[in-house]
Amino acid sequence: MKILAIETSTETASVALLDGERISERSVAGRPGHSETLLPEILGLLADAGARLADLDAIAFGAGPGAFTGLRLACGVVQGLAMGAGKPVIPVGTLEALASQCADESGAIFVAVDARMSEVYFAAYERRDGQLVERMAPACAAPGEVRLPAEGAWFGFGSAFKAYGDTLVPAVGERLTGFDASPVPLASSVARLAAVRLARGETIDAALAAPLYVRDKVAMTTAERLARGGKA
C-alpha cells in the first residue's frame, strides 16, 4: 500500500509517503500557503523513495478545518495529481489527524487549534480499540465560548491552548485534565489515517475532493474585531 499525503492547513506544512509499514516525511518551507515549495517537496519525496505517482494507491490530504489558503492549495494540488495519475483521493480531517498524535493515556482528546481572527477550531475524539471515534464534530467559536462534550474528562491538545489559554482553559472548565499546546498536524498522521480508510474502500473521485470549512465568515468588521479584543 502506497499513499502520498499532504498537510498544509497550518504554517507548518509537510508531505509524507506511506509505503507498507514504512513512512517518510518532509517539511515544506516557505510563506503561508507553501505554493512555491509544495510540489518540489512532493517530487523530491517520491524520488527519494524511488516511487512514481503511477505507483500510488491513493493520495490523501488534510482537509481542514484550517487556514483557507492552505486548504485550497492542498485540495487543488491533490486533485491535479490524482486526476493526472488516475488515482483516488482520501480527505482526512485535520483535527482528527492531530488527535491521532496525542499520547495521553486516557484516550479522551479535546483538540483545539488557533483559527486566527480570535477564534478556535475544536473537536473531541476517543480512542476505542485503537481507533479514533468522534465525540464532538469540528466547530468554530471564540475562546470563551468553547465547551467540552457534555460528559467525561478530557485532555487538551493543540495550538489554541497557547494562543488563548488564559481564556480557553477557564471556559472549558475543571473536566480538562491537562493540555499540550505544542503539536501541529503532520502529513504522516494524515497518511496513517488514510491507510485505514483505503483498506475499507473509503475513497472518492478526485473531482469530488473539497476542503472542510466550519467557518463561513472569513472577514470581520472593525466593530467585530474590537469586540473580540483585536485592533482596528
TrEMBL record:
<dbReference type="InterPro" id="IPR022496">
    <property type="entry name" value="T6A_TsaB"/>
</dbReference>
<protein>
    <submittedName>
        <fullName>tRNA (Adenosine(37)-N6)-threonylcarbamoyltransferase complex dimerization subunit type 1 TsaB</fullName>
    </submittedName>
</protein>
<dbReference type="InterPro" id="IPR043129">
    <property type="entry name" value="ATPase_NBD"/>
</dbReference>
<dbReference type="Pfam" id="PF00814">
    <property type="entry name" value="TsaD"/>
</dbReference>
<feature type="domain" description="Gcp-like">
    <location>
        <begin position="33"/>
        <end position="150"/>
    </location>
</feature>
<dbReference type="InterPro" id="IPR000905">
    <property type="entry name" value="Gcp-like_dom"/>
</dbReference>
